[in-house]
């Protein structure tokens, strides 16, 4: 999905004619585009830097588990965000939704319903917020930036109202256990499995379904999409619902990880998710983007943080270096992928 | 850090109930005879009802446990006195909003103001304004930029917190060769974090066998505590002690320690959250002590404001008036004295 839908050509509901692959290898090579390769290159460079500076701490299974676990929460959020940005929108409320869902799901009343209660509440709150965003944007004709900014403010406010600023400890053992070593499946933390599943489903949804094609079409040229018979409004509603759902899932993962709910959860997720998607090659103006790229973007971010922490860099240096690396990553991409 | 401006009531309309429990002035059967202060002894504030005082209280938005405890301490202390009426504002992290709230209290002509500014420097002007209007200000914790903006400052000792944490760890690791210490700091763009770290480092200088091998900064949140601590544990495969600046982020740090299955070091916390006290009392994990940043300072600020309003000094001191500045002590709480402090723990 790297061809920007050109405004000149009306988008049809039919899938574009695929090049007939002559062999499985050829088709694979055609599918892995230059952008993804350049991102993998950036990640490889980071791995080399990490391996050289901190060989003992960086290159071991524990650290791989750690990096993937840390990437899970923001990773799931980024998958939802990628869909929204591809469709030409933006969701600034993701961090607030994660906060609200995580505190709502960890209140004493909710925890009485155990594992299922916490999971259900987190997902339901995420969907609820996504629904509000979607209705405001699709049917209330509000600009996504403003609608989701309003959700950010009110979501954080409501999260504070619920918690009264207090940290809500999780008392349900089965939830806590899920974030601990005993529940690793073949060495893979459950959180990472969820992240992987969301990534795969997201990829299939974008590349193998009408929903995915419609999302790209709406972002490429909404008017052309409408003329081609796509219900643009309903599509937008679904997209913000999807983002909300991802935030709900992420909130549950965060509850498992942190063993608590706090109204400060999900701080600045919106910026991290947008940045990861952009680094991954998603156009902020919509119409183009890949799930693979976004997930690689997240992994690059988390790996950077990991290398910084392992090398015990000072906070100020970390912040400056992070900014520089973002710029470098985007420049590398531009260079290698001149379309 | 984003400044989520005042959001309360956005969903419910702006009908947020003012938290100020306006106490009905209790009529104490005071004798009306105005005892002229011709007596030789200085008058000190005590629990007996005296002149009625209206205290205006303005703090930041209580978005975490410690600030909540500040509000609770102020309110419950004011309730204790029959002669005190507390006018508490809603609280805001927005400088402009907080200035407005303090100005409202000035216009109400309260007798004394207790102000915990969201940002000390930014609220200096309104402190000056109050003082010029003849309303004495008790500046709580975050200090104004000018000493003319307050009559009395009372607050915590960030440097002392680090100092006491360092000395506690130093004593515990006495006799251990090449001991390694790790620090999990709070939000690094705050001056108070720098002060805490400086105190900690200065204390550790007294112990030649100890080396601080790593320092990473979290953001006072559970999530950041979990994240940074798990990285620290990965980076440092063995160390002997950890100081974590803040018990709130400590919840996340303890979670990371449990997830990594580590128990080969001692941990000291900071601030004095109830969850930390309980952990220390149980004595089953790595957390052995915490250094206080006591929210009871808000109760003391009410005491001082009352004494100020009644023109009295502080009981137990020879002065005729309250001090100009009071820096509180950062006591170390471990399992030996934790019961005594349990009631001050905040959630």
Describe this structure as you would to a colleague.
Chain A is 71% helix and 1% strand. Chain A is mostly helical and 339 residues long. Chain A has a two-stranded antiparallel ribbon with strand order 1-2. The longest helix of chain A has 27 residues, at 232-258. Chain A is globular and about 60 Å long. Mean pLDDT of chain A is 90; it is low at 1-21. Chain B is elongated. The longest helix of chain B has 16 residues, at 65-80. In chain B, strand 6, helix 5 (191-204) and strand 7 form a beta-alpha-beta unit. Chain B has helices spanning 65-80, 95-107, 124-132, 158-172, 191-204, 222-235, 247-260, 274-282, 297-309, 338-341; strands at residues 53-58, 84-88, 112-115, 137-140, 152-155, 179-185, 210-217, 241-244, 266-271, 287-292, 325-327, 332-334. At the A-B interface, helix 4, helix 8, helix 13 and helix 15 of A face helix 1, strand 7, helix 6 and helix 7 of B.
Which structural traits does this protein have?
heterodimer, A: 339 residues, mainly alpha, two-stranded antiparallel ribbon, globular, disordered N terminus, B: 347 residues, alpha/beta, six-stranded parallel β-sheet, six-stranded mixed β-sheet, 10 helices, 35% helix, 17% strand
Assembly form of the protein = heterodimer
Main sheet specs of chain A? 2 strands, antiparallel
- The coarse silhouette of chain A is globular
Mean pLDDT of chain A: 90
First-to-last CA distance of chain A: 14 Å
The beta-strand count of chain A equals: 2
Number of strands of chain B: 12
Mean pLDDT of chain B: 88
Give the strand order, joined by hyphens, for the main sheet of chain B.
Answer: 2-1-3-4-5-11
Uncertain segments of chain B: 1-39
Largest interface, counted by CB within 8 Å of the partner chain's CB:
A-B, 45 and 48 residues
Helix content range of chain A: over 70%
- Structural class estimated from helices and strands of chain A: mainly alpha
Distance from N terminus to C terminus of chain B (CA atoms, Å) equals 23 Å
- Helix count from the secondary structure assignment of chain A: 16
In DSSP terms (H or I, runs of 4 or more residues), the helix count of chain B works out at 10
Largest sheet of chain B: 6 strands, parallel
């Amino acid at each position: 999905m790297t061809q920007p839908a050109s405004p000149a050509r009306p988008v049809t509901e039919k899938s574009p004619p695929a090049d007939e692959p002559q062999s499985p290898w050829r088709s694979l090579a055609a599918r892995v585009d230059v952008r993804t390769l350049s991102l993998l290159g950036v990640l490889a460079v980071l791995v080399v830097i990490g391996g050289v500076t901190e060989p003992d701490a960086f290159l071991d299974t524990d650290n791989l588990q750690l990096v993937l676990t840390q990437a899970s929460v923001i990773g799931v959020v980024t998958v939802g965000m990628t869909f929204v940005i591809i469709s030409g929108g933006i969701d600034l409320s993701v961090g607030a939704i994660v906060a609200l869902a995580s505190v709502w799901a960890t209140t004493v009343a909710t925890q009485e319903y155990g594992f299922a209660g916490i999971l259900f509440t987190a997902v339901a709150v995420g969907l609820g917020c996504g629904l509000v965003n979607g209705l405001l944007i699709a049917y209330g004709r509000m600009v996504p930036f403003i609608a989701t900014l309003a959700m950010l403010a009110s979501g954080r406010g409501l999260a504070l109202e619920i918690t009264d600023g207090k940290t809500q400890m999780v008392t349900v053992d089965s939830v806590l256990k899920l974030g601990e070593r005993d529940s690793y499946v073949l060495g893979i933390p459950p959180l990472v499995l969820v992240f992987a599943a969301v990534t795969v489903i997201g990829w299939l949804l974008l590349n193998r379904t009408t929903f995915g094609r419609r999302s790209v079409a709406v972002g490429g040229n909404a008017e052309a999409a409408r003329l081609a018979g796509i219900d643009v409004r309903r599509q937008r509603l679904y997209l913000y619902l999807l983002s909300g759902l991802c935030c709900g899932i992420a909130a549950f993962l965060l509850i498992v990880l942190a063993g608590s709910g706090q109204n400060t959860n999900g701080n600045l997720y919106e910026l991290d998710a947008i940045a990861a998607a952009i680094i991954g090659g998603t156009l902020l103006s919509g119409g183009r983007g890949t799930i693979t790229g976004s997930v690689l973007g997240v992994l690059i971010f988390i790996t950077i943080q990991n290398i910084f922490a392992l090398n015990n860099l000072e906070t100020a240096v970390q912040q400056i270096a992070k900014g520089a690396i973002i710029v470098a990553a985007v420049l590398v991409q531009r260079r290698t992928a001149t379309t | 850090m984003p400044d989520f401006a005042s959001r309360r009531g956005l969903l419910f309309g702006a009908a947020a109930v003012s938290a100020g429990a306006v106490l009905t002035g209790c009529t104490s059967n005071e004798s009306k005879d105005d005892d002229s202060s011709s007596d030789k002894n200085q008058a000190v504030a005590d629990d007996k009802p005296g002149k009625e005082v209206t205290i205006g209280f303005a703090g930041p938005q209580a978005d975490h446990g410690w600030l909540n405890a500040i509000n609770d301490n102020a309110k419950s202390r004011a309730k204790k006195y029959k002669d005190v009426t507390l006018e508490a504002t809603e609280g805001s992290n927005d400088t402009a909003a907080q200035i407005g709230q303090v100005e409202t209290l000035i216009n109400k002509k309260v007798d004394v103001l207790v102000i915990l500014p969201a940002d000390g420097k930014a609220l200096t002007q309104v402190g000056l304004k109050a003082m010029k209007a003849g309303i004495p200000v008790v500046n709580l914790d975050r200090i104004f930029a000018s000493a003319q903006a307050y009559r009395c400052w009372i607050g915590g000792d960030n440097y002392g917190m680090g100092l006491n944490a360092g000395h506690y760890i130093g004593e515990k690791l006495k006799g251990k060769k090449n001991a390694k210490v790790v620090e999990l700091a709070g939000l690094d763009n705050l001056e108070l974090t720098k002060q805490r770290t400086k105190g900690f480092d200065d204390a550790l200088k007294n112990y030649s066998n100890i080396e601080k091998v790593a320092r990473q900064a979290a953001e006072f949140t559970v999530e950041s505590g979990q994240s940074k601590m798990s990285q620290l544990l990965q980076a440092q495969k063995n160390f002997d002690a950890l100081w974590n600046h803040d018990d709130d982020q400590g919840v996340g740090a303890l979670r990371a320690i449990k997830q990594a299955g580590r128990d080969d070091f001692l941990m000291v916390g900071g601030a004095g959250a109830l969850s930390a006290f309980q952990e220390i009392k149980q004595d089953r994990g790595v957390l052995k002590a915490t250094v206080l940043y006591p929210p009871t300072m808000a109760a003391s600020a009410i005491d001082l404001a009352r004494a100020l309003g009644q023109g009295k000094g502080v009981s137990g001191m020879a002065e005729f008036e309250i001090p100009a500045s009071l820096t509180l002590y950062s006591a170390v709480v471990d399992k030996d004295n934790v019961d005594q402090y349990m009631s001050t723990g905040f959630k």
